[in-house]
Specification:
The chain is an alpha/beta fold. The protein has a domain at 80-102 and 121-284: 3-Layer(aba) Sandwich (Rossmann fold). It is built from seven helices and ten strands. Strands 6-7-8-3-9-10 form a six-stranded mixed β-sheet, sandwiched between helices. The protein has a four-stranded antiparallel β-sheet with strand order 2-1-4-5, with helices on one face.
Amino acid sequence: MEPKKSIDRDPSAARIPFSDTPQDTVLPAVKKVDTPPDPSAKKPPKKAVIEIKNLYKNFGIVRGEVKVLRDINFTIHEGEFLLILGPSGSGKSTLLNAILGLELPSAGNIVINGKDITKMTPDERATFRLKNVGIIFQKPDWIKSLSVIENVAFPLAAAESTPQDQFTGAKKHLESVGMLGHADFRPYQLSAGQQELVEFARAMVLDPHMIIADEPTGNLDSDSANKVMEMFQALNEKQGATIIMVTHNIGHVKYASRTIYLKDGKILDGSSAYTAADLEELEATPVI
């Protein structure tokens, strides 16, 4: 008897077993269906960059003490544009100065990026401000003997950048606010609106992730104020900068992602859509 011959099988012949489909037929690919995101799913919480805990600030006077801030508690998260709204004398600027470490609180803690600035020395707080925060005040503080571009470059000089980096950085940020053509002017030769733009450039020259502004549009006309607020909004939305701004102008609420209302040193309410009627109601609310 002859031995059975082995049959060499084409490996591809087993591609489609038990089927009458011709072996050279290409079956349609299975289309992958993307599952839409569940809107109810929880998003990961954003990092807390500033935590204000049980904050009090008193100022001593001849006949006793003035309580300027009373038991302030709130958290600012990364990427927020927080507006602190309130009438004159409500403690808004004192609160900002406390966050900046310019005024130490009478009690409480201020934790920024995980570090309690109330426990730092004055030199440590100054270095911390330089490295972490861009500051914009209502009335810019210029070195009058320096030109516009030299004033903008000053934070870079304080951070010990090279002269070339100082010039390049200052030029870049002046150009970004449309003020490069005034680089060789003295700041006092500029209008209030132009000075605010230059101060914006100076605050951004170290590319900080956090901007703190105290009434930056207080001395500006409506058009200039809107331009500055749009710059803040773009900085927040496009670059993800965290912004804390003090104002008494309710029209600025639309630019922010969150607003808190401060009256007589206490936070009364927080909203992202205040109206004139809301403001009147809050101003009439007694503070206990």
